[in-house]
Amino acid sequence: MSADVLNAARLFANFMGTPRMQAAVVGSGDSVGAIPRYLLPMSKSAYDEPLLANNRFYQKYFRNLTGAPYPTIGFSNI
Is there a domain that residue 78 lies in? Predict the structure, then answer.
């Protein structure tokens, strides 16, 4: 790949990784009568974007996501 293609790919990945874009991707398409997609953003800060901050599903999920410890019992036996 050329340096231009690699740079364009890097710029695109950086753009898609912004909290605003994550919120736009996971929160769009939920119009009246549509089947919700329920995708999850990859960063916690995306939950602060207005599109997700005003969405009951995502706020409930986020509270559950941050409210429980990660299970690590039994991993040392592997």
Answer: no
Number of domains within the chain: 1
16: nearest Cα among 42, 37, 53, 45? 42
- Write phi, then psi, for 68 (nearest 5 degrees): -135, 145
Q: Is residue 77 part of a domain?
A: no
Domain that holds residue 32: 3-68
Structural domain includes residue 38: yes
Q: In angstroms, rounded to a whole number, what is the distance separating the alpha carbons of residues 78 and 62?
A: 30
Rounded to two decimals, the pTM is 0.64
For 4, the token pair is 């231009």
**What average pLDDT does range 49-63 have in this prediction?**
86
Which tokens is 50 given? 């207005």
Residue indicated by tokens 């950086």: 14
Structure tokens at 15: 């753009």
